[in-house]
Design goal:
single chain, alpha+beta, 9-stranded antiparallel sheet, Multidrug efflux transporter AcrB TolC docking domain, DN and DC subdomains, Multidrug efflux transporter AcrB transmembrane fold, 31 helices, 30 strands
Length: 1015
């Protein structure tokens, strides 16, 4: 008893199980997580170590090197990049692809231990190191608080209020605030007055440090009680600071007598956020692991609407990015595309197979889709771009098995058998070949499921969705389909004259096909030569196909990166980009403009990589009304920046629809000498500048910056008891200021900063007026007594290393077209630059990302290709028949090349996946035809007649399977992400199916040496 007979004899059980599967699938669908794009793990962490006052070279040698030595001991390490700048070391740690979200926490724990062990090797004043392992956290809801009438303190107060309230919303994990300008207590000694008191700096500074310290006064037993003691004397206001008493040389005076005390914002700010030219504070909200970003977003919107009335009048909320809205829109669009594809497939079935057959297969298709959700939900698959696209891709394939079964039953009915017997016989004959063909189709997609790099992880749901749905389509084809066929299909009516039933494959259409096939077999070498010529032409034509990695997003927002000369003050950067802000706000079609000055924003998209802090950097996030006009807006923005900010490098960037990043072309030179590296980089930059299609050209070392170096005369300094430490502290206090303590105000901790007055800090010419304490003279003396002058030098402010070796990177992007085309033109010129011994050139950017993705995919291809071959051999217990089947697979390239060239689509990573999966579709069709051929031969027919008859009998199932797949993918032609993949599959399948219906029988006659006369 086969599966069909079992289900037919237990109709009630089968029907109930089918209904339960459908309802469970419906429930699972509504319970699945929703995302705009699939998640992938950012396998990077940052190790940040401060070293105040140290020059970049000192940071590199004394801090970065020690941290790198410790990190290098990690066995899981893939790559290590470091950035050393004045006073700060940042090491980016990249872990090998084989580690995933479940195993990474253990890796980060080990990283922390290694970094902690290295702390003892750091120089005095350096550290402690901070390990940031949530670098890849995504803040799906990203908004600002802004209002021209409000100070930063008022904005921060309301931001804290919103954070406190919104953390209570379901599925909210954390809320980060940035763009805030913290306040400080500034104490600005008046130089002339301070000199009158002859008070040593330590005496003055220690007094300030002692204030507001939290000290344990202990407890006292009083009777039966044990009571805490807490004396008064805390400073509770700026006025209290002014009344701080001092005594020196038996004189009593107050802080107000020789210093100005005031409360102000920390200057300079570390970063600045602006929204439509107004000062703002940004808040980013992330979702808990496994949470539903849509339901969280909706709950946040509801709560924000309730809290808005509590905000001061005039304070507004501006949305930078709202993933829930984007997800809902993206899911709705994809569901629409899925329904369109479903309607197209069912319409094709109804048109070519008749009402009953088409309706039957349509029911099976819907049941298979809904049943797939039952298994996909516990597998952690969310509804997102890839998974829904995979369903659309699978639609045509999901009906293949049912079409073969229904077509077989219809043939049996035409031959006079009952529906029951016809169903049992068809399933008995086809179940195993269909299972093998289904497994082969699944194996064709499996390589992407085992790829562990970012691109593989990004696309992994493609395999899971197609694998589950295809296997379930086989299950429903051999169980539910026979049951519905018995209930719905009717045998053809007997002719009234009792004439013999017509041969099922003897109408005009089949006669034309058989005649064509016989002619191709008769002139088989001509046929094969023609096919080989077409294949060779397609190989040649493929060389003209554009190459790309992932396509850009259609998000109605674009980024503008602006780099002013290195060393630009952050306030100057703000003032310069305000010109661009104003211009953008007046431009038609532009909505809100968010400015991030001094650093990138929070990671509000998984594919967005925030820029590390740099005062000369700014980024604008520009909303547009029409996403199709983004290229036009970008070009206009770049032209305006070039005209208005001639010293800046400014360029627009589209968001990516997959792993990648800014700087699609990246050339990296490695070597020991910074001068040589800069020379090599300069040559590469010039080559890029000379190319008319290259833009956004820059290096990560940036320009050298000015450095003022007061030259200490040690002999004079020693006579006065002054050392370099005292000189540095005096200069720091005179300009940037020195933090000497903390003022506690509620839950705020405000730094107490001693610095010179505004007038004394305005110009560097005031340097000679700085007073420095001489322990020998017991008074302040002019700094000119211990320095001989001030030297102006230039230094590298940023030093980069890759795996502990100095590296300089040169970036570029294409003005138009693909990065691959630009890379092909730049690569030979840059590689022609002569490299000194010990220096090397590495290519990163899209080239490396694509190479890594293809290598990750390639690791799994041999294993699954072997499984496909072995499955084919097992199905036929033969070598020649599988050889014939596999010879048909390369024919897909004929259609692929033609399709990509006709539609002008690039061959992307998704197109590569489509090409690989296409092999499974073709093999499935070829197996169905070969199985029928074996069945025909087993009846004793002449070989040539059996070949022609089997091809005719499989013509409709193969053509229908191809047609449903091809037409079902039409909606994906209009999706930027899947367009190249859809073109690859549609054109490849279309050409290959036509050729397979002819070429496979022709090759069979050649391999088995069947001559035309035998027919």
């Amino acid at each position: 008893m086969n599966l069909a007979e079992f289900c037919l004899r237990r109709k009630t059980t089968t029907t109930v199980l089918a209904v339960v599967l459908f309802l469970a699938g419906l429930s699972s669908y509504f319970g699945m997580s929703r995302l705009e794009d699939p998640e992938f793990t950012i396998k990077d962490a940052l190790v940040i170590t401060p070293y105040p006052g140290a020059a970049p070279k000192e940071v590199e040698q004394e801090v970065t090197d020690e941290i790198e030595i410790a990190i290098q001991q990690l066995s899981q390490l893939d790559e290590m990049q470091s950035r050393s700048e004045r006073g700060l070391s940042t090491v980016t740690v990249s872990i090998e692809d084989k580690y995933n979200a479940k195993t990474l926490p253990q890796v980060w724990d080990e990283l922390r231990r290694k970094v902690n062990d290295a702390q003892g090797n750091l120089p005095p004043g350096a550290g402690p190191s901070i390990v940031i392992d949530d670098y890849g956290a995504v803040y799906g809801v990203y908004f600002v608080l802004y209002g021209d009438e409000f100070s930063y303190a008022e904005l921060k107060q309301q931001a804290d209020f919103l954070r406190r309230e919104l953390l209570l919303v379901d599925d909210v994990a954390r809320i980060e605030i940035h763009g805030n300008r913290p306040e400080a207590i500034y104490i600005e000694p008046i130089r002339d007055r301070l000199a009158q008191f002859d008070m040593a700096p330590e005496e003055f500074l220690n007094k300030l440090r002692q204030q507001n310290l939290v000290l344990d006064t202990g407890r006292a037993r009083i009777g039966t009680e044990f009571i805490a003691l807490d004396p008064t004397g805390e400073i509770n206001s700026v006025e209290d600071f002014e009344e701080l008493p001092f005594s020196h040389n038996q004189k009593k005076f107050y802080l107000r007598d020789f210093a100005k005390v005031h409360r102000a914002y920390v200057d300079p700010p570390s970063d600045i956020v602006r929204y439509n030219s107004s000062n703002a504070i940004a808040l980013g909200i992330s979702t808990v692991a496994g949470g539903n970003v849509v339901t969280m977003g909706e709950a946040l919107d509801k709560r924000l609407a309730e809290l808005k009335s509590d905000l001061p009048i005039g304070m507004e909320i501006g949305i930078i990015s709202h993933q829930a809205t984007s997800v809902t829109l993206a899911i709705d669009n994809f569901i629409t595309s899925l329904l369109q594809a479903l309607a197209i497939v069912i319409a094709v079935l109804l048109l070519f197979m008749g009402l009953r057959s088409g309706l039957l297969i349509g029911i099976i298709l819907v049941l298979t889709i809904m049943g797939s959700f039952v298994f996909l939900k516990p597998m952690g698959v969310a509804l997102e771009r890839i998974s829904l696209g995979a369903l659309i891709i699978a639609l045509g394939m999901l009906v293949d098995n049912a079409i073969v079964i229904v077509d077989g039953i219809l043939v049996e009915l035409k031959r006079g058998r009952s529906a029951f017997d016809g169903a049992v016989a068809t399933v008995k004959q086809s179940a195993i070949p269909l299972l093998g063909a289904t497994l082969i189709a699944i194996f064709a997609f499996a390589a992407i499921g085992t790829s562990d790099n970012a691109a593989g992880e990004f696309c992994s749901s493609l395999f899971r969705v197609i694998g589950v749905s295809l296997f379930l389509s086989w299950v429903t084809a051999v169980t539910v389909t026979p049951l519905l066929a018995v209930l719905m299909l009717k045998p053809p009516k007997e002719k009234s004259d009792g004439a013999k039933r017509a041969e099922p494959f003897n109408n005009r259409f089949y006669r034309i096909y058989k005649s064509l096939l016989r002619q191709c077999i008769r002139f088989r070498w001509v046929s094969v030569t023609l096919v080989i010529a077409l294949f060779a032409t397609s190989l040649w034509g493929f060389g003209f196909v554009k190459q790309a990695f992932f396509p850009p997003s259609t998000r109605a927002q674009y980024m503008v990166d602006i780099w002013l000369p290195q060393g630009t003050h952050i306030k100057s950067t703000r003032d310069e980009i305000s010109k661009v802000e104003g211009w953008l706000q007046e431009r038609q079609g532009v909505g809100n403009v968010t400015s991030l000055v001094g650093r990138g924003g929070l990671r509000f998209l998984l594919t967005y990589k925030p820029e590390l802090p740099n005062s000369s950097y700014a980024q604008l996030l520009v909303d547009v009304e029409d996403a199709s006009r983004i290229e036009e807006h970008i070009q206009a923005t770049e032209d305006y920046i070039a005209e208005t900010l001639p010293d800046a490098v400014g360029y627009g960037i589209k968001y990516e629809l997959g792993p990648g990043g800014k700087g699609k072309i990246q050339a990296r030179f490695l070597g020991d000498d910074p001068e040589v590296l800069r020379s090599l980089a300069s040559q590469a930059e010039q080559i890029m500048h000379d190319h008319p299609n290259a833009k956004a050209i820059r290096t990560d070392w940036r320009q050298r910056v000015k450095l003022l170096r007061p030259e200490l005369v040690e002999e004079r300094a020693n006579l006065m008891g002054i050392e370099k430490k005292e000189l540095s502290e005096a200069i720091r206090q005179a300009y940037e200021g020195a933090t000497v303590g903390v003022y506690r105000e509620g839950d705020l901790l405000l730094p107490i900063i001693v610095r010179a007055s505004d007038e004394e800090r305005q110009e560097i010419t005031q340097l000679e007026n700085i007073q420095i304490w001489s322990p020998v003279a017991r008074k302040r003396v002019p700094i000119t007594q211990v320095i001989s002058g001030v030297e102006l030098v230039f230094e590298d402010e940023i030093l980069m290393r890759l795996d502990r070796k100095p590296v300089i990177s040169i970036f570029a992007d294409p003005e138009e077209g693909t990065a691959s085309a630009l890379f092909k033109e730049l690569q030979p010129q840059i590689e022609a630059i002569p490299l000194p011994e010990g220096y090397e050139l590495l290519w990163y950017g899209e080239y490396k990302n694509s190479k890594d993705a293809n290598e990750g995919l390639g690791k799994g291809i041999p294993m699954f290709a072997l499984l496909m071959v072995l499955t084919t051999i097992a199905l036929f217990n033969s070598l020649r028949q599988p050889l014939i089947i596999w010879l048909c697979v390369p024919l897909a390239l004929i259609g692929v090349s033609a399709g990509l060239l006709i539609t002008d689509q690039p061959f992307t990573f998704m197109a590569l996946l489509g090409f690989i999966s296409l092999s499974g579709m073709l093999l499935k069709n070829a197996i169905v035809m070969m199985d029928e051929l074996n069945t025909q031969l087993s009846t004793g027919k002449e070989k040539l007649q059996a070949i022609v008859d089997s091809a005719a009998s499989r013509l409709m199932p193969v053509a229908m399977a191809a047609a449903t797949t091809i037409l079902g993918m039409i909606p994906l032609f209009f999706d930027d992400f899947f367009a190249a993949m859809a073109v690859t599959i549609v054109f490849g399948l279309m050409f290959a199916t036509v050729l397979t219906l002819v070429v496979l029988p022709v090759i069979y006659t050649i391999i088995f040496r069947i001559k035309p006369k035998e027919g």
